[in-house]
Amino acid sequence: MVMVKTKKKFPPRSPPFFFSANVMELPLRRSNAKIVLLVTVALLLLTIVIPIYYPLLGYPVYLLKHYSTKSSSGSSSSSSSSSLSAVDVQAPVSAPPPRKADEDDDDDEDGIKFCDLFSGEWVPNPKAPYYTNSTCSAIYERQDCMKHGRPDTGYMKWRWKPDGCDLPIFNPVQFLEIVRGKSMAFIGDSLSGNQIQSLICLISRVDYPISVSTPDENFKLWNCTYYNFTFALLWTPHLVKAIQADPNGPTGSGLFNLYLDESDQRWTTHIQEFDYIVISAAHWFYRPSVFYENNQITGCHYCLLNNVSDLTERYGYRKAIRTAFRAINECKNFKGVTFLRTISPPHFENGPWNQGGNCVRTKPFKRKETPALEEGHLEIYKIQLEEFRAAKKEGKKKGKKFRLMDTMKAMLMRADGHPSRYGHFAQENVTANDCLHWCVPGPIDAWNDFLLEMLKMEEVRSYAEKVFSSDNKM
């Protein structure tokens, strides 16, 4: 037998990852690497990026879809007409009903038709609340109804539904993107602070605001560092210069000297620093006060002083809010938007606040069963609307922007949303129930739903101005 000598076979070694004996493998592996990279990026987009930023994608399309422009006049240019048609195509099939002529139309001078956000009904929202006192530390002690043992939770599970459209639940990412690099001030009394609590808790899910120390105890400041958004509370419950003359006064709530023709410089000297201001104050005018004009006493509200006429709180309020609006219109360096939030109605039943009045309801009123606004508050509300219209008309001549945040009708239905006796522990010696402020979380969160939607409307106006301006140049 002939023995054939053979070479011992060894298994081939794997080539280094950067080399292949088969020249065809190189493009194939490169292709696989590209596929893996693409799949990874797609997964990131689908699972992280899009869910977070979805509300902002295609924002101009959102603007055109949800708001429509009025038809142009016959004298408009063909280029303007074509632009208007393009916008109208995107408008909803069923447009919201037009506002009545006596209502405050923000759309008339802008050529844009907006839905009336403030006429509607409260509808169930089982997904709420979107934060609690365990996830947000900004809730004031007196509005923390959860902490103080309120047994029901239904007051948190409603949302406002306008008649002609929908009001989206507050989206913190969308809000912070709109106000990125901007600033906002809430000007007024403790209800302005009540709204800020809600805002802090809502946006803290994305970027927790940092409190910034200021030398003035009446000027509180917060900053969202990632979005470079600053917002402030400017405490000014009378809007005008006020001095407490007596800490007790005739009713135990103090006696104030109000200089009705002098604005409160604690806030008027700061407004030029802000892009938006939300102004609201009313309830402190029910406290006894003496009215000064041209540094002379002209009357008072329940001051019980000899030879001083009682002109009522309505006189003082009209003069004060007129002075406040005049200060805004005369501030040349303020280029921002002014929102007036209308009066927030209290709901004391079975007596006034200092005589056992309470608010123990657990569900909102339906529209047809909502009680009428108490006469004194109704007069204040009417004054707000009248003075707002006058200020807006005057401000238009100077390029000022005034917007009405008419929350009164929605909040009139929410007698269930106040702290009542749950603004303090049962063992505390507190005799009065709080039926003025709002539980947090609670109905007051809707104020920030309104605020965000109105900021979107400002984006619409800005976008439309750019479109129409470019059309006119063509």
UniProtKB/TrEMBL annotation:
Predominant place of localization: membrane
Topology in the lipid bilayer: Single-pass membrane protein
Boundaries of every Trichome birefringence-like C-terminal domain copy: 167-454
Stretch forming the signal peptide: none
Domain Trichome birefringence-like N-terminal: 115-166
Compositional bias of kind Low complexity: 72-85
One MF annotation (Gene Ontology) recorded for this entry: O-acetyltransferase activity
Keywords: Membrane, Signal-anchor, Transmembrane, Transmembrane helix
Pfam families: PC-Esterase (PF13839), PMR5N (PF14416)
UniProt-annotated stretches for the region Disordered: 72-108
Record localization: Membrane
GO cellular component: Golgi apparatus; membrane
InterPro entries noted in UniProt: TBL, TBL_C, TBL_N
Family membership: Belongs to the PC-esterase family. TBL subfamily.
Designated name of the protein: Trichome birefringence-like N-terminal domain-containing protein
Species the sequence originates in: Rubroshorea leprosula
